[in-house]
Amino acid sequence: MKRLILSSLVALSASVVVSAAHADSFPEKPITMTVAYSPGGGNDTVARLMAKHIEPYLGVRMVVENTPGAGGQIGFTRLAKSKPDGYTIGLLSSPSVFMIELMRKGVEYTLDDFQPIANIQSDPIILAVNEKSDITDFASFINKVKEQPGKLNVGGDGPQSNVHLQAAALEDALGVDVNFISYSGSGPASTGLLGNEVQAALLTASSALQLVESGRIRPLAIFSKASHPSYPNTPTATEAAGKTVPGVGTAIRGVAAPKGLAPERIAKLQDAFQQLLADPEFQAASEKMGVVLTYMGAEEFEKELQASRTEAKQYIDLMK
């Protein structure tokens, strides 16, 4: 009996050692980063930028996989239902991720189905027009909207996205009515603006930067509390309007996993992304692409998501 008990203890001890060694070896294969939007948009931009630079800190490659559709619902649902082993993570975009949950029936996830890992970026919305447009500034845009209530086409990621939310907040703050045209992401919305399918577009600051710098589109205003480092000559919407226009559509982008991920794997992923954001080469590349880095650890990021969800609720009825 003593021999049997001793053998069992030895086996149990060996099992614990093997389990610990297995946990410590994570990750052992490439990690998939799910992006719930089309290539070329703000979410895709920051995901691919991270994928290019993070391998030294993860120890493995990170592969970006776009799963667009239904304004992000398909990709977010896929992430929520993935195995919580750390090998499938995703880029959450607040407020879009919970606006879908709040506004639609039959959504198969809630915000509580995700495990926040680290926030990466704060990306406000800009209002832009084709460089050939006769709309020269924010004031002339508002005048044209008032002349044609409900008829001036403004493109953007949607429906029921952070961009759509920003459009609703703009209308509410200034008492105007635009015809919001939904695209599957900032990339397609930019294409629509360039092709004159719409008269103006609401685009994420990061996704629009190259088009602005190349002179193909003209920014009229940015929906942020302060001037944006990549748009120093573009007024905030509040400055341009002469009254407060809230920037509720600002995308808070961060990494999350399906709920249930082991704490030690959460810690390893969080540490990798924290090191990435401190990397001078990554910082320089981010600045060049107009990506404003805003790091938050898992706990702080979760609080930010909950606060953003509460703020967005006041505009939900305006979007239905």
TrEMBL record:
Family the UniProt entry places it in: Belongs to the UPF0065 (bug) family.
UniProt superkingdom: Bacteria
Classification via CDD domains: PBP2_Bug_TTT (cd07012)
InterPro entries with a match to the protein in the record: BUG, Bug_dom1
Family matches, as Pfam families: TctC (PF03401)
UniProt-recorded name of the protein: Tripartite tricarboxylate transporter substrate binding protein
Source organism: Pollutimonas harenae
UniProt keyword list: Signal
PANTHER family assigned: BLR1237 PROTEIN, TRICARBOXYLATE-BINDING PROTEIN
Signal peptide: 1-23
